[in-house]
Amino acid sequence: MRHVPIAQFKDKMSEIMAAAEAGEDVVITRHGRDYMKLVPVEEDRMARQRAAIAGLLELREELRAKGVRVSPEEIIAWKNEGRR
Predict the structure, then answer these.
(1) How far apart, in whole angstroms, are the C-alpha atoms of residue 59 and residue 70?
(2) CA distance between the termini of the chain
(3) DSSP label at 35?
């Protein structure tokens, strides 16, 4: 993992962003403390999707253990609940 002070990030932004886009973990530091992690948007989106799927699979197993059956339509309805 590469730690970069914020002043250095300002000076070499293009180079550091290219490294993050290539898959390198980059953490921007401020006053010596971790401030922000730089990751490509697509990678972040995929990580959130994987976490959501894992959560759904875990929920399914918990419900099955309790003898509760849930249809895909019910899950979609839960997901859309509260949306316009």
Answers:
(1) 10
(2) 41
(3) E
* DSSP-derived secondary structure letter, 12: T
Q: Work out the angle at residue 44's Cα, subtended by the Cα atoms of residues 38 and 45, and round it to the nearest 5 degrees.
A: 150
Report the b/e string of 29-63 with b at 16+ CB within 10 A.
beeeeeeeebbeeeeeeeeeeeeeeeeeeeeeeee
- Over residues 38-81, the pLDDT tens digits come to 987 777 778 888 888 888 889 888 998 999 988 888 888 887 88
Helix, strand, coil proportions of the chain in percent (round to 5)? 60, 20, 25
- Report d(CA 27, CA 70) in Å as an integer: 42
Give the whole-angstrom CA distance, residue 30 versus residue 4. Answer: 9
